[in-house]
Prior knowledge:
- The protein is α/β, with parallel strands linked by helices.
- The protein has helices spanning 21-39, 65-70, 77-92, 97-116, 121-142, 151-162, 173-185, 198-201, 264-286, 301-309, 320-330; strands spanning 2-3, 9-10, 50-53, 59-62, 187-188, 194-195, 241-244, 292-295, 313-315, 339-341.
- Strand 7, helix 9 and strand 8 (292-295) form a beta-alpha-beta unit.
- The termini are far apart.
Amino acid sequence: MQGGGNGGVFVLNRNSKRDTGRKAQLTNINAGKTVASIVRTTLGPRAMLKMLLDPMGGIVMTNDGNAILREIDVSHPAAKNMIELSRAQDEEVGDGTTSVIILAGEMLGVAEPLLEKKLHPTVIVAGYMRALEDAQVILKEIAYPIDVDDPAAISEIVRASIDTKFSSRWGSLISDLAIKATKTVCVVKPDGRKEIDIKRFAKVEKIQGGELTDSCVLDGVMFNKDITHPRMRREIKNPRVVLLDCPLEYKKGESQTNVEITKEADWEKLLMQEEEEMKKVCEDILKVKPDLVITEKGISDLAQHFLLKGGVSCIRRIRKTDNNRIARVTGQGVLSSCFWLFATSPFFSQTA
């Protein structure tokens, strides 16, 4: 605990260290340069792989800057800023995570002699901003338009980003898969604009066994779930799908509930009431004549019984993201906050 000059009190960790002035500036510069030196050897055509040990004890080999820095545990605030810079680059652009770290490290390095000449940091930053404006002008001069309908031009750009990774030994396999996946999730709006949301609607599923060359892009949704009852249909073509975000089972009350029963018949009535309520819910679902019911929550044995009698297959406890992907595949909108109803779609079939 340290008393401030104006009577304030600072509560600091026992291991914390406080630097001010020129020493703090040099420490921040050295921290940034150290982070840049970690990923420097992973840049370029002769890039080397880094062998990482993840928290679960597995070994990962990669030359992706963001993947490497994601596994590094740092405590220095300037070094944390550098790692956040790589993460922001990956989220906004998807490429150049290593380059942006090395560039930031070099900019910190060239600022060191300027600080020794007693130049104020704001003056140095103003010079960087002028350099940024000049760089943007130069980039506009050397840039050239790309025809998005030309597969060769698009492939050349994507390969420059993806085939620098470890997967380059398989040629253009991964970049071709990336282009096909992007085209699959692309939606053309009525006004002609294209919406491509890779983060939400393009998903990479890893399955053990086989070769990397067996990888392919599925025009649909895949999730690792089985039907809830063995007598339900496992393969349905052109199904009528109901998506639920609510449970088909009794939930415990929010407050503590006590029921006192004096007769055995009263217990049977309680069970019958529970069964009747669940039967009503299932009847409401069966009115829209679905072939498949998918829910994010659970399905009780009673609900399975009534839906099985109606010839409906059920899948339970899927992720919210998978539910959104199925909604996108079936091509319909949300009708209710309780459950989502979708029409027949030829693009979805569930096979166990």
